[in-house]
Every structure is written in C-alpha cells, then in structure tokens.
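[Discussion] Sanity-checking designs against the backbone

I'm trying to build intuition for which residues belong where. Below is a structure token string of 207 positions. I'd appreciate it if someone posts a full sequence so I can compare it with mine line by line.
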C-alpha cells in the first residue's frame, strides 16, 4: 500500500516543472490514446508520470496515508473504467485530478462524515466572510513559511481549503484548471483561495 507514497510538503516557493524532453507531450498523448483503445500495458507508464503528484494531492485532502493509498488505487481503477469517456481536448491532468478529487470527497462524506467546509481537529471555525488577499499578502505569507510549521497549519484547514492551496501552489494549476478539477465557478475558486490564505495566515500568526 505504501508503494506510491511520496514526501508530502509545501515548497517554499512554487517549483517549476523540470526541463522535459520535447517529445514528452506527444508521448503522453500517445499513451493516453493507447489506453483509450484498451492497451492496459501503458497504464504503468502513465501512473509513474503522475503517482507522486496524485498521492500528494490525496494525502492533503484526506490527511491519512492509508486512506490516500486506498483512494489512489481506486482512482486508477476509475481511470480504466472511464478512460473511454475522456475527451482528449481536455487537459489530462485536470481530468485525472477531478476523478481523484471526487473519490476523495466521497470517502470523506461516507466514511468519516466530514463536512467539507469544517476544520479537521483544530476546533477553529472556518472563516467564511473574509476579503480575498492580494499578491503582496501572498508573498508575505510565503516569506513566513517554515516548512514543517506550514504543513502542520495546512493540515488544520477545512478540506476545501487544503484542496485549493494544494492545486494552486503545489500543482501550480491555473484558476481555470482548479475550477475544472473542483467542479466550481472561477469566482468560487478565487473566494476560496482568498479565505484559505487568510485562514492559513491567521494560524501561522498564532505559532
């Protein structure tokens, strides 16, 4: 079960993707097309490409390595089941994370009876009426970051806030991509991101 675990942390700055071979995207598209044709032997290479990012995302949402492992496996089973419906005009990353996100939310609702907008175990009520923070505030927040301290603070946030922060700053997704993964309007993405950052900043100030 621990085969796919990766180190889970928020980087001090958003890390750019490593330099890639020019043929990477065409190879990826070919693998996905082959999977759609039922060639399951390419699944391993696709999983290897996304395993660390996907596990990290699930771990952030579920806050449980065993549950993250379980939903990680379910995600790929669901991918096999639904790959025939995947529209190649969409970004595969967004589609994949959307599949994983839906399974994670189902897990939280059915097995833990979690409210998506409630804090985990901190006892702190979510902040729902805060103005969105600007770029300068974000830079201040990132400067304040201290690795493990920030990770611990993120763990106390509601699921919907952990989700937004992970997709935006760990996965470096654009707001439009986050909206597609979460199935919400861009305006909601912006407001959740603002509340998540402000709530996180408040927790860090208490450290």
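Best answer:
Here's mine. Compare freely.
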């Amino acid at each position: 079960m621990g085969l796919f675990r990766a180190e889970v942390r928020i980087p001090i700055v958003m890390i750019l993707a490593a330099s890639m071979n020019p043929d990477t995207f065409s190879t990826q598209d070919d693998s996905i097309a082959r999977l759609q044709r039922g060639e399951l032997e390419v699944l391993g290479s696709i999983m290897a490409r996304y395993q660390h990012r996907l596990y990290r995302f699930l771990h952030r949402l579920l806050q449980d390595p065993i549950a993250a492992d379980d939903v990680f496996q379910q995600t790929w089973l669901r991918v096999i089941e639904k790959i025939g419906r995947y529209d190649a005009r969409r970004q595969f990353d967004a589609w994949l994370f959307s599949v994983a996100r839906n399974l994670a939310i189902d897990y939280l609702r059915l097995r833990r009876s979690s409210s998506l907008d409630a804090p985990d175990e901190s006892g702190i009520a979510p902040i729902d009426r805060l103005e969105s923070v600007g770029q300068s505030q974000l830079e201040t927040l990132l400067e304040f970051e201290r690795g493990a301290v920030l990770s611990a603070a993120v763990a106390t946030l509601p699921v919907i806030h952990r989700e937004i922060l992970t997709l935006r700053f760990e996965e470096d997704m654009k707001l439009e991509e986050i909206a597609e993964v979460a199935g919400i309007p861009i305006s909601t993405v912006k407001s959740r991101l603002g509340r998540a950052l402000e709530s996180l900043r408040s927790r860090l100030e208490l450290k």
